[in-house]
Write the structure tokens for this entry.
Amino acid sequence: MDDVTTDEFLAGVIEGFYGPPWSESERHEVLDWMRQWGLNTYFYGPKDDLHHRIFWRTPYSDADAAVIGGLIHECQQQGVRFVYALGPGLDVRYNDAADREALRLRFTQLRELGCQDFCLLFDDIPDRMHPGEIERWGSLASAQCALTNEMSAWLRARQPRSRFLFCPTPYCGRMEAAGLGGEGYLETVGRELSQDVDVFWTGPEIISSEITVGHIDGLAAKLRRKPVIWDNLHANDYDGRRFYCGPYSGRSAELKGRVKGILTNPNTEMPLDFMALRTLAAFVHAPGPWDARAAYLAALKEWLPEFETVHRPMVFADLVLLADCYYLPHEEGPEARQLFHDIAELLARDPADWGAEAALVRAQVVRLREICARMAELKCRPLFHALSRRVWDLREEMDLLDRYIGFALDSENRGRTFHSDFHLTQTYRGGLVRRLQDLLVQATDGSIRPGPSAANRGGPARA
Ligand code: GDL
């Protein structure tokens, strides 16, 4: 890893998700974690700070500026690099002098607040330009590079040691393969983007289960520089029912030598980000090969005190089971996997053939239901608030399974149909979204086609 200040390896946090930006006190807590764990970069780019994308031309009000100024000041005190990102790509006119001036004005406002390092983001925007712009620049990549070069040169003339970053419109392998941004987009960036600007990349996918050295080496050759990883492994803004507290994984220790930084864009609910940030920090500082599960268990031990309840203390084994249920986007933790397997095995068999294992499975189901229920007793209320809606769903399913297994275990119920008074249609697994999900169903190979409920027209929400 390089350690010249302007080329320091960036390791830290991106506040870059959709949804409510973090509060001042949440940012304060994140910075506290970062200082303790040795993460050096806080990247500010919450998609739904209206001034970040939609109103990128409008300066912050004094009140909003004071909040960001406070954050910058706190970063400085903690020795954390603060990077301010602006996303003008939704409607910027690459030819327009007034738009360039608006960028300079915003950067000036931030510089006056003490900000040193900046970024222009061109992710999640239409990959089109206006006809006059196409004639002038030839490609979207050229237009974005020219704008970024101009802004980074302007900044460096004032702050020579500033870091400048750029997020391309195709920012993962799948987008590049689909031709997003136009033919040869990344190669153009490699040729035309000033060498002192860093380029973000999320890996083969937006949410990459793995980022291999081979993948990054191929990319670096096109970009003519090492990228900075924008890691969405723990981001959950795309699915409000889930969160991720598994370990930083699917990336080998060698990756660190092939990139100029790794920044993680984690769960929108900050209290759920302990594991994402703790294990990223452990990964960055690990001297040798990376053992993700060992790092997970070590970090979970550190997280355990946050799970103190108003009644008896939470035991470590219970936290492992719960956290394994909300592990990573592409995988459950081993205990959750085992439980699912045991339940599926049991339900696949005729209850008449069930033996002692049915009671064991049921006991595990009840245990998990109780763990979920106990979240309401957490002393740390922000953690409970962040968990509450998510674990509710799991608790409901465990409750239903308990009732069903109990029903099926009773030989008097053979041949009878099971109903639960606590799981009624419409209020349980109800709603338009759920009904829509049944219309177009996705197979495990990713293919999507109309499901059985499409054939009977989905049925009415109300008879
Ligand atoms: C994205 C967005 C990011 C979002 C994430 C997960 C990048 C560069 N941009 O595409 O803001 O949080 O996916 O939904 O990742």
